[in-house]
Amino acid sequence: MPTLLWMQTAACSGDSMSLLCAESPDLLELLEGHGVELLWHPSLSPTSAADLGRTIDRILADEIDLTVLCVEGSILLGPDGTGMFDSFGGRPKKDLVAGLAAKAQFVLAMGTCAAFGGIPASGPNPTDAVGLQFLRDEPDGGLLEREFRSRAGLPVINLAGCPAHPNTMVQTLLWALSGMRLELDHLHRPTEFYSTLVHQGCTRNEYHEFDVEERDFGAPGCLFFNLGCEGPTTMATCNSILWNNQSSKPRVGVPCFACTSPAFPRAHDLFKTNKIGEVPVVLPLGVNRASYMAYKGLARSAAPARLLERKSKL
Ligand code: SF4
User: Fold this and answer.
1) Cβ < 6 Å from ligand 1: which residues?
2) Beta strand pairing status for 68-72 and 3-8?
3) Fold of 196-314
């Protein structure tokens, strides 16, 4: 019988809450459908912390075969490399996670903190937080070595996002449990879920095309030019597989913060676009600056009156 253990390290539980929102399948359907024994999940298991300690010891002693290890949260290496800022039963979680990873068939980093360090690893990082195998985009900076491979021959599978998208988590779990081949990008994210831009499918796209810019929140236009949206440079399915089958941040007027990126969170204001003059410093992926500047003026002059008057129904 396949087994799944969910370890929570330096985390806010956002990925657990996101996982519980999965609908196709939901978590219980996934576990029951594949006969998976849930060894531990901090929000779901009725057993005690002492039971978790015994389960961990049995896995480390090869008495329980671990199929999937899910880790939610950054790994804290401090103080002074001891890892004791985040411990369990007197043992640093960094050591427990490293030991469990060596036993698991698949290791999944659930969310950007586990994948790349995330918010705890952003400056000044007093706890020496890192991701499981990466620190930001650096493959040598994480808890596990660059060469680490799980028993299935895969590196840590990074399901980035703050939180990770529920569909991305359950579908990747299904793929792992089914033994299907997973294609990963250079940041070890499954290409199935990280090869389209958040911008694709956004209901504000028509405003973007015609350079109809918003300067204040609450209006229907594009948030890229002034209000900090990183949808045109961020790989995720937020606008093609909607959250709760309903919506996404840009659709409801909140800029994409690029939370699936190893650079998340960026150092400057999340609600403001850095610009040189009227042109954003970071342009849509692959766009040449000179061409963009020429296009921007033309697009604006061609904008239909209904968009300028914000009459396109969202
Ligand atoms: S709001 Fe963001 S995701 Fe939507 S069209 Fe504008 S740049 Fe793209």
Assistant:
1) 198-199, 202, 204-205, 208, 222-224, 229, 231-232, 250, 256
2) parallel
3) Cytochrome-c3 Hydrogenase; Chain A, domain 2 (4.10.480)
Domain ranges of the chain: 3-178, 196-314
DSSP structure class, residue 251? G
Model confidence, pTM: 0.95
Among 203, 205, 249, the mutation site with the greatest number of ligand 1 atoms within 8 A of its Cβ is 205
**What CATH architecture does domain 3-178 belong to?**
3-Layer(aba) Sandwich (3.40)
* Range list of β-strands (E), 82-215: 87-88, 91-92, 106-110, 129-130, 157-159
| Pocket mutation for ligand 1, best pick of 197, 198, 310 (most atoms within 8 Å of C-beta) | 198
Q: What confidence tens digit (pLDDT) does each residue in 179-225 have?
A: 888 899 999 999 999 999 999 999 999 999 999 999 999 999 999 99
Q: How far is the centre of ligand 1, averaged over its atoms, from the C-alpha of 174 (Å)?
A: 31
Smallest CA-to-CA distance from 20 within 44, 39, 2, 38 is with 44
